[in-house]
Amino acid sequence: MIVLIYREHILQEMTYLKEGALLKGNVHKIFPYGAQVRITGTNRSGLLHISNISQGRVLSVSDILNVDDELKVLVIKSNVSDKIALSIADLESAPGLFLSNKAKVFSEAEEMAKRYREQLPVVSRNTKLDYDLPEETIPVDNEATLYANWKWFKFLRHAKSGDGNDRT
């Protein structure tokens, strides 16, 4: 039972990859605009766009990558479970390093991924989803903040026709 729960947790994490996650993968297909990278241990893949291969100038994807090349890639966008944008350029410690020294980029990948994550916008640690809150809880820091901007709203009474309160 514990193994099943653990596997469900892993599958959920892989379904909704977080921005800044460092992954291993293999080049599955090469296109003029980038490469499809199959994520190791899954049947999922992401796009490594030509502009995200290196900070240096890349004229042709096939000059730099080959099918079945092993890569370390950074998730830079994963809004929908089947669309994952990947990057190696964000793992470079110097512009164009991937073009001249792939091994160094991959050896520094963990540290560069950590730096990338530190630059991401911080989501409030106090944020809770509505279904986690008791019914009487207001999901803001204080009630005054909740009502602070009400003066900007104009409330209109919509009367039903024939009730004597019609406004024209």
Write the layout of secondary structure elements.
Layout: H1 2-15, E1 22-31, E2 34-39, E3 45-49, H2 61-64, E4 70-80, E5 83-87, H3 97-100, H4 102-107, H5 109-118, H6 143-147
Parallel strand pairs: 3-5
Antiparallel strand pairs: 1-2, 1-4, 2-3, 4-5
Q: What would your notes on this structure say?
A:
- By secondary structure, the chain is α+β, with helices and mostly antiparallel strands.
- It has a domain at 2-118: Nucleic acid-binding proteins (OB fold (Dihydrolipoamide Acetyltransferase, E2P)), CATH 2.40.50.
- 26% of the residues lie in helices and 22% in strands.
- The chain is built from six helices and five strands, in the order H-E-E-E-H-E-E-H-H-H-H.
- The protein has helices at residues 2-15, 61-64, 97-100, 102-107, 109-118, 143-147; strands at 22-31, 34-39, 45-49, 70-80, 83-87.
- Strands 1-2-3-5-4 form a five-stranded mixed β-barrel.
Core attributes:
6 helices; 168 residues; five-stranded mixed beta barrel; OB fold (Dihydrolipoamide Acetyltransferase, E2P); NA-bd_OB-fold; alpha+beta; single chain
In short:
By secondary structure, the chain is α+β, with helices and mostly antiparallel strands. It has helices at residues 2-15, 61-64, 97-100, 102-107, 109-118, 143-147; strands spanning 22-31, 34-39, 45-49, 70-80, 83-87. The protein has a domain at 2-118: OB fold (Dihydrolipoamide Acetyltransferase, E2P) (Beta Barrel), CATH 2.40.50.140.
CATH class type of the domain at 2-118: Mainly Beta
Number of strands: 5
- CATH architectural group of the domain at 2-118: Beta Barrel
Assign the CATH topology of the domain at 2-118: OB fold (Dihydrolipoamide Acetyltransferase, E2P)
What is the 3D shape? globular
- Low-pLDDT ranges: 124-140
Give the termini separation: 66 Å
Strand order of the largest sheet: 1-2-3-5-4
Q: How large a portion of the residues is in β-strands, by DSSP E?
A: 15-25%
Mean pLDDT over the residues: 77
Q: Structural class per helix/strand content?
A: alpha+beta
Largest sheet entry: 5 strands, mixed, barrel
